[in-house]
Specification:
single chain, 105 residues, mainly alpha, Helix Hairpins, 3 helices, 0% strand
């Protein structure tokens, strides 16, 4: 099947995915859902790196590693976007504009 360390990384990645999915579906708070989605994404990245190391030959396949690096960049940007949206949703609404009578006779 592979070396014992690769099995540990694969099982650790799968455990992170399931922990993240549990947090995503079990918690109603939006911030916890964002964090749970990041945990699941980290598990997927760990699983992909472990799968790349299983390629035959002395050198691991570089394509999954490139996909993981790209995925990390996308995950960071999507997380920041989700957090900004969460802040906008949680911010109190500004008061409606009032009509001023200044300058009128």
């Amino acid at each position: 099947m592979g070396s014992p360390s690769l099995v540990v990384y694969t099982l650790g990645g799968l455990a992170l995915v399931f922990i993240g999915l549990h947090g995503l579906f079990a918690r109603p708070e939006p911030l916890r859902k964002i964090i749970a989605l990041n945990i699941a994404g980290s598990g997927i990245f760990l699983f992909l790196v472990a799968a790349a190391a299983r390629a035959p030959g002395p050198v691991p396949d570089p394509v999954p590693h490139a996909m993981v690096l790209t995925g990390i960049v996308v995950a960071v940007s999507a997380t920041s976007f989700a957090l900004v949206l969460l802040l906008r949703l949680a911010a109190p609404e500004p008061p409606p504009p009032t009509v001023s009578n200044r300058g009128r006779p």
